[in-house]
Amino acid sequence: MSTPDPARRVAELRSRIEDANQRYHQHDAPDITDAQYDALVRELEALEAQHPELAASDSPTRRVGAAPAGRFPPVVHAVPMLSLGNAFEDGEVADFVRRIRERLDRDVLVFSAEPKLDGLAISLRYEDGAFVQGATRGDGATGEDVSANLRTIAVIPQRLQGKGWPKVLEVRGEVYMGRADFERYNEHARLHGGKVLANPRNGAAGSLRQLDPKLTAQRPLSFYAYGTGLVEGGTLPDTHSATLARLRDWGFPVSDLAEVVSGVEGLLGYYQRIGEARDGLPFDIDGVVYKLDDYAGQREMGFVSRAPRWAIAHKFPAQEQTTVVESIEVNVGRTGAVTPWALMQPVQVGGVTVTRATLHNADHVARLDVRNGDTVIVRRAGDVIPEVVQVVVDRRPPDARPWSMPMACPVCGSEVVREEGAAVWRCSGELSCPAQRVQAVFHFASRRAMDIDGLGERYIESLSELGYLQDVSDLYRLGVDDLLEMKRRADERDGTTPDTVKAGKVATKWADNLIVAIDRSRDTTLARFLYALGIEHVGESTAKALAQWFGDLDLIRHLPWPLFKRVPDIGGEVARAIGHFLDQPGNQQVIDRLLGRGVRIGDSHPPSSRLAEGLDLATLLVDLEIPKVTPVRAAQLGAAFADAQAVLDAPAHNLVTAGLPADTANALVAWLESPSNAGLLLRSAQAQGRLRALLPDSGGQPAGPLEGKTVVLTGTLASMGRDDAKARLESLGAKTAGSVSKKTSLVIAGEAAGSKLAKAEELGIEVWDEARLLAFLEQHG
Ligand code: IVH
């Protein structure tokens, strides 16, 4: 194809390449992929070859990279740091070998073949064995002095080991960031709002060019040596491979993957092997490098403008490509985490066709500002899922709108909520969301929840996939026949039907046992039931606290969230999570079905009298977390107004008369203007009323016979499990603890009690045996 106006195209290409060089070398923020860059350079090279009249000494084809940005002192390289010519196809490798064979007139050519690490080229200068200076490549002639930053990289020797090193030695190599380090770094940045690195190479380059070495030290950088520069006052071996071995002896990391091979077949075989190993390597490589091994041959071959004639880089398919985002979708994980991903026009990345890429989380989308229709850079490296790393903003369609997280779960329609300060959004349909079903049932059945023995994850998965379980309540509809049928179908599907079954013998005992276990789980406690629901943030201890304080499922399931904050240790975040869960009609329906299918809570009781203190208007106004309404302001409001309705009806000036500063009054009025807030206030106040009515008579009943006591269990009890004993003691008001101290009020010693019993005796703490415990439980049960 001939270009209509070569001069114009050459100028265009030069300007585009210069721009890319600037972005890559000085700002560490490239806007085109390496493959695109290579294509531009090749096109320019071809045009310059066809049209010698257009050649220019300052063409980017004759220079390497960009002149330093000037933030660091310049370092003039005693031996220039050159670039490498590229080969993309086997034929180009064959041409490279042929050129050397012809010029050197040799039949057998021996090469050092090495991985081409994707990082940043560095020159390290050692004088009398001590590291004195390290510099970036810069434009090849002059680089930047980044010695202080290089000193923070642990694998770079400060002093050379062994002996025999030249008086002055420059070692050249690549600073890079390993994949795992890169992933870890980005994961941390994503969670804490830091700058996410587009790829390990940008990470390495950006890190080395930090002005503060302390920042570099925080970045996980590594280094591999691959050659030398200036050598004075000493000599090196005659071959490159022997020099690499020597560098290793002197303390430099040298890649284990380097090999000595001969001829085109040797080179292509190496390319193939490393290509196969590529995805599993702990660092990114973008190709391999072939270097004529003997220095005499290298000298004879010499250089063309920007690269040696004795070496070439053989590139792998690019790990980054540009493509267009067709839509941004969300995925709901097993735990309810809602994560965005991009559906894209198909593109080959690293030899694989990619159509989807992760966008990690909503913050990441916001930071990248990815929109539908955007041209983006996708990256796929190693086993890592392809990810969108950058948007090419110049190519954005004019009508592209910023993306935002959907309000409703795409799987079950429940509300999608975000925890304060967290990057993750979650579906609040824990019990009713099919995406969370397996996880929900697994948790529901676990030992500390409903304790259904024998219901493993595999069975749950099959029951769910084959349609026997829509939600946890379906467990209580299963019969032995359903289980046997499920097993038969799952085995058929997986091709795992046992020979005994084929011979007509079907094992049924497991199914009988499982049905018995499910049936037995129907009788449970409120704490176990609440824990089993799998509400975000509600672990066992929170579930127990809720059970102790409120006592009754029917009460709890209709409480607005601010009321949950009356339980010590439940803060706003946990209270809201419980509220979100209970607000989802799907979750409430599952609870109804569970009760309808025979789940019975045996330990319901009236709410704790300890709630009495916090059922007033002032406390509610604090619990609602209204901006500017501090406890002092809430107390003023509580004193001035009869009830919540009166606050709601009050004009702003009445709030001021009640003693509120104007800005607080305005904040409260603004808050109450939202119908959902006003509704929450009134519903919460009504719930307070219901609770008050349920409280044991005031002055009232002691909260439990073991109230205020700390009890330690030790040894084995014959009549009940330790968890059971703990639950019963706690239901009588005790706190249980794991070790005996002066604070312990009582120790229950079962069979074979050891050091805890001894300690209790030593401290003079009351000790009960099992019989005494049983008598006590009987009396208070
Ligand atoms: S040799 C004169 N060997 O690739 C020869 N370079 O495209 C100079 N690179 O600037 C380079 N691994 O940053 C050489 N084993 C290796 C390499 C390697 C990575 C980088 C280096 C160089 C660039 C050339």
UniProtKB/TrEMBL annotation:
Zn(2+) binds at residues 409, 412, 433. Its EC number is 6.5.1.2. GO terms for molecular function: DNA ligase (NAD+) activity. The keyword Ribonucleoprotein does not apply. NAD(+) binds at residues 34-38, 83-84, 114, 137, 174, 291, 315. SUPFAM superfamilies: BRCT domain, DNA ligase/mRNA capping enzyme, catalytic domain, Nucleic acid-binding proteins, RuvA domain 2-like. Keywords: DNA damage, DNA repair, DNA replication, Ligase, Magnesium, Manganese, Metal-binding, NAD, Zinc. It catalyses: NAD(+) + (deoxyribonucleotide)n-3'-hydroxyl + 5'-phospho-(deoxyribonucleotide)m = (deoxyribonucleotide)n+m + AMP + beta-nicotinamide D-nucleotide. Signal peptide: none annotated. Residues 701-781 form the BRCT domain. Coiled coil: none annotated. It is an enzyme of class 6 (ligase). Its cofactor is Mg(2+); Mn(2+). SMART domains: BRCT, LIGANc. InterPro entries: BRCT_dom, BRCT_dom_sf, DisA/LigA_HHH, DNA_ligase, DNA_ligase_AS, DNAligase_adenylation, DNAligase_N, NA-bd_OB-fold. The active site is at residue 116. Belongs to the NAD-dependent DNA ligase family. LigA subfamily. DNA ligase that catalyzes the formation of phosphodiester linkages between 5'-phosphoryl and 3'-hydroxyl groups in double-stranded DNA using NAD as a coenzyme and as the energy source for the reaction. It is essential for DNA replication and repair of damaged DNA. This is DNA ligase. The gene is ligA.
